[in-house]
Amino acid sequence: MASRPSPSSNSLSKLITHPNKPFRGSERLTALARQLRMYKPPPTIDESEEEQRIEEIAGKVVSQVGFVESATPIAQQSERFRPKRAAVLICLFEGDGGDLRVVLTKRSSRLSTHSGEVALPGGKAEEGDADDADTATREAKEEIGLDPSLVNVVTVLEPFLSKHLLRVVPVVGIISNIKAFNPAPSADEVEAVFDAPLEMFIKDENRREEEREWMGEKYLIHHFDYEAGSAKYVIWGLTAGILIRAASVVYQRPPAFVEQNPKVKTPGLVNKDTTMR
């Protein structure tokens, strides 16, 4: 997919600043939509402002695997740090038991990158996308057949950086009528579509952690084990990091475990082959 430059304006800002926009759903989902529309994500940065921002945050935080972009340091470097943009859809709905659940996918084992891993629907921005919500809902339709008209986009979260230094914007949407969604996974990209309780990502249950070290700094990668019927899944890395953040925002409390964000400096030269291991 072709990438596009970051938008100079994002129509999501209009949605976020109108918290009384009508929402049709259960009492709980209506209250959730109202709460999330009041959430204030960090301001969107225009590409024209990016160069100035990079100069201002030199020596501060930039990136790591599965953590918010603002949580790690960047070193002074000879090339400007200009990551490509992507968006993922955190699609929430109310389960039969009244719990909040999130739609997830298992990537096809035939894919060249992250094959067989659990992911949120999403991908790189394309030239025709109006904003991050457009990117996330378009990709969700392509990957799992989710009609964008079923999704009420209510907010965006702070951008994350993938290990390939791709800026990933989590877009939060709510499906009020989950029965209208009939998953149609793309055989080329998706092996399975399933859902999991959102709250599990701030609980210290069925969770493992892996300590890693890079450039002398230690940090934790979280792995969540989940079973859906006879299938077993492991949700980890960037996807786990995004869902930990989403659950913290939705339930308005921090996780019951230590996240330990890594303080990993980027190399002095950033190019298309640079990765955070």
UniProtKB/TrEMBL annotation:
Residues 83-239 form the Nudix hydrolase domain. Residues 1-13 have a biased composition (Low complexity). This is Nudix hydrolase homolog 15. GO terms for cellular component: cytoplasm. It comes from the Eukaryota. Keywords: Hydrolase, Magnesium, Manganese, Metal-binding. InterPro entries: CoAse, NUDIX_hydrolase-like_dom_sf, NUDIX_hydrolase_dom. CDD domains: NUDIX_CoAse_Nudt7. Its cofactor is Mn(2+); Mg(2+). GO terms for biological process: acyl-CoA metabolic process; coenzyme A biosynthetic process; coenzyme A catabolic process. Transmembrane segments: none annotated. The lineage of its organism: Eukaryota, Viridiplantae, Streptophyta, Embryophyta, Tracheophyta. GO terms for molecular function: coenzyme A diphosphatase activity; guanosine-3',5'-bis(diphosphate) 3'-diphosphatase activity; metal ion binding. Residues 1-26 are annotated as: Disordered.
